[in-house]
C-alpha cells in the first residue's frame, strides 16, 4: 500500500478506487471488448476479460485483433497489470537412486548399488504432480537410458505439445527447509 501510487486514488477516466488514469485502459477496453450475450451489463472484470481475450483469427481484419502481452490479475487493486509472471522459486536438492526404493514399488531394476548423490538446482512447483528431468541428470547419476523403467505415461507441456518421456527412475530427493530441517521424498 505504501508503494502503490494508485492506493486510495480514484481514476479520473473510469472512477475506480485504487486505479490510476495513467494506466487506465478504459477506452481501449471498450474498443476491443465484446459485450456478453445476455442482457446483463458487463462489470469491470468482464470488460477486462473480453478486452484481453478478444483476439481475432487470421480471417479477421487487423482492426479486430490485438497483440496480447502477459497480464497478471491484482486482487488488491481489482485490475489487470501488464507484467511478467513472478519468477518460480528454485531450491537446492540432493538426488540419489537407491535400488530398494524400486523394490518397494515392485519394480524391476538393473541398478544394483545406490548411485552417488548429486546436487541439483530444481524449480519448486507447488502444482507439480510429476517430476521431470533431462537426460543430463541420468548421466550425472552415473546411469544411462538402459537403467530407466519403461513407461506408457504421456505428458504434455503448457503449450499442449507432447513431452518425450524416455523412461522413469525412482529418485530419493532431499532438501533443507527454511527452518533447517532435512526433508526427503521419493
TrEMBL record:
Q: Which organism does this sequence originate in?
A: Petrolisthes cinctipes (Flat porcelain crab)
Name used for this protein in its record: Uncharacterized protein
Q: Which domain of life is it from?
A: Eukaryota
